[in-house]
Amino acid sequence: MINVLFIGDVNGKPGRSALLALLPKLIRDKKIDFVIANGENSAGGFGITDKTFEDLLAAGVNAVTLGNHIWDKKDIIPVLEADSRLIRPANLPEGNPGRGHSIFTIEKNSVKINIAVINLIGRVFMIPVDCPFRSADRVLAGINGNAKIIFVDMHAEATSEKQAIGYYLDGRVTGVFGTHTHVMTADEKILPMGTAYITDAGMTGPFDSVIGVKKEIIIRRFLMAAPEKFELSENDVHINAVLTGVDEATGKAVSIERINIKYE
User: Which residues, other chains included, contact 223 with Cβ-Cβ below 8 Å and sequence gap of 6+?
Assistant: First the structure.
């Protein structure tokens, strides 16, 4: 069995600092073989830069997925083109830079194992994009058996859309993990055909906040209905993640566990 860790949206410097401090020990303690993290909020809560991408890799992350804030920091575009460890939504319109999936090779017990990571973005209450369901079909056809172990980051707002794609891909991928809402759900399970699923993997960042932003700012916005610049909180930082045990012979999930670690 191999152990794969999926880390919920890494939010700004607090989230990056927590990973740099705690992820190496978590990898050792849980005997983790491969780490995926959603990094679309890693630069000040909005977007990703080459520096924050490198911070995630330095912490022990192997693959970084993105979402609707992909274009907030333009200097990431050359990295999208150059580095296969950075994966943007596969259902962005054709012609965008970067790749919607990557295949990684790890070695365990002298055996080489391929792991594919796919990034998708939802359409409900989100930016206009191509159909994530049909895009997933297209990507899986392209993988064409080159990886039995396949993980999907479904970056979406609507619970129903995430659940639907989980069942749509059940038995065809190893895991479907929702991101974007920054609030971990308690519905982790293995679907009938062997796919690990959770509606949202949560947030790696400051919990004394409203989804990462200083709570006073968000409360004023709701009270006054007036725009105000967002500022990240720095208090009560946690790592939210999902650990999946995988049968490497079949690519099926055999266990799923929510992880919530406070960064002191």
Answer: none
Reported pTM: 0.96
The CATH number covering residue 251 comes to 3.60.21.10
- As given in the structure block, the two tokens for residue 165 are 């794609």
Give the span between the Cα atoms of 161 and 169, in whole angstroms.
Answer: 12
pLDDT, tens only, 195-231: 999 999 999 999 999 999 999 999 999 999 988 889 9
Per annotation, catalytic residue among 69, 155, 182, 238: 69
Rounded Cα distance between 113 and 58, Å, is 22
Question: Six-digit token pair at 233?
Answer: 């909180």
Report the C-alpha gap between 83 and 99 in whole angstroms.
9
Q: How many domains does the chain have?
A: 1
Per-residue pLDDT tens over the stretch 25-74: 999 999 999 999 999 999 999 999 999 999 999 999 999 999 999 999 99
Does 69 qualify as catalytic in the annotation?
A: yes
Beta strands in the chain (DSSP E): 2-7, 9-10, 34-38, 63-65, 86-87, 101-108, 111-121, 149-155, 175-179, 189-190, 196-198, 203-206, 237-247, 252-262
Domain containing 105: what range? 2-262
To the nearest 10 degrees (0 to 180), the angle between helices 12-30 and 50-59 is: 20
C-alpha to C-alpha distance for 205 and 12, rounded to whole angstroms: 7
Q: What three-state secondary structure class fits 107?
A: strand
